[in-house]
Amino acid sequence: MMTPMRYVFLVLGIIISLHYILSFTHEGYGRATSLSTIKDRITSPKVPPYKVPLADDYYVKKNITSPQGRRANATVVMLARNGDINGVTSSVKQLEDRWNNKFHYPYVFLNDEEFTQEFKDRVKTITESEVYFGLIPRDHWNQPDWIDEEKATKAREDMVKNNVIYGGSVPYRNMCRYNSGFFYRHELMQQFKYYWRVEPDIKFFCDIDYDPFLVMQDQNKVYGFTISLYEYEATIPTLWKTVKEFTTKHPELVTEGNAMSFISDDGGSTYNRCHFWSNFEIADMDLWRGEAYMKFFNFLDENGGFYYERWGDAPVHSLGAALFAKKEQIHFFNDIGYRHEPFQHCPQGNAHKKGKCYCDPKQNFDREWYSCLNRYDKMFF
Asked: Which residues form the active site (predicted)?
């Protein structure tokens, strides 16, 4: 072989040898010079660099499971309209970042109209959990035909004159009635026992590194809250009178060792208006599905106070939990930082540090004059 050709083959051999050595010893070089990469460069369309996705090996690999290795039969539930999508995604994103990316509980979204494809797509973008979208039956949502519309209209007009919040709104009353007695009956909810109620435009301030549903399940809790306060008297003028009529008629349904002292300062003669703020609830739906509460809700519903007054689901749920559960079964989630305008619960002391909370501890509704937490605490003294 001619000498010049020997040098050519020698140089080629050295280059090929170096290529293989570098391919095995330097991962980045091997990836950059692999046949698949070269092929992609040749066949891929020309695009700006930022449009080329990063390789998978840049990302942290997820290997997160429940530390207990088990989950409760539970879901997150939200009542929302299509127009709420920005507030919905904000709330879901926060819940995912603070908690559910570790536990992957499913979501149920309920609406009195069909959800749009845009709504569904945007929600599914921010969670890897299973998501269900449900349509509320019309007879569960709309004002019943047996309501005296003339009487209801007069009541709304009077509330508007007196500047009662949502006093003139029929849809708000529909929502309160639905949340009080129907959401847990929806076909999508039948597969679950526990729920965490979330609303659009709320904030979660702290990391939640445990499973609240398992706390409920293992400790036999049936109702959990973060904020409690007094109800507006103008919205419930005859609610307690109606409740007393029910308990007089059905004393056998009232649970011994209940939370009566939270809702009444005189053994049940009057209602002190304390209630759990139901825009945050973690609860056992068997409480609502049981005989006592179902009869209770039907009795209230037949009275018409959801429309002749403006009974909210917060006092109705609170009264139901207080009467039909033991006081020890009602749980204050002290370590879950939460805000629904205009009030917030910000964990204090070690709970604030452990949860890496970003809320200001001084901005905490718990000890404000309008809070009922002190009455909850006194039940256990």
From this structure: 281
Distance CA 37, CA 31 (A): 7
- Number of neighbours of residue 226 by Cβ within 10 angstroms: 26
Q: Residue 302 and residue 225: Cα distance in Å, rounded?
A: 28
Q: How many CA atoms lie within 13 A of 322 on its CB side?
A: 26
DSSP character at residue 62: P
| 295-346 confidence digits (pLDDT tens) | 999 999 999 999 999 999 999 999 999 999 999 999 999 999 999 999 999 9
Q: What is the pTM of this model?
A: 0.84
Question: What letter does residue 100 receive in the DSSP assignment?
Answer: I
Q: What is the pLDDT of residues 201-248, one digit of tens each?
A: 999 999 999 999 999 999 999 999 999 999 999 999 999 999 999 999
Longest dimension (CA), the chain: 115
349: left (phi over 0), alpha (psi -120 to 50) or beta: left
Rounded-to-integer distance, Cα 250 and Cα 46, Å: 76
What residues are labeled active site?
281
Rg of the Cα atoms in the chain: 29
Q: Give 187-229 as a DSSP string.
A: GGGTT-SEEEE--TT-EE-S---S-HHHHHHHTT--EEES-EE
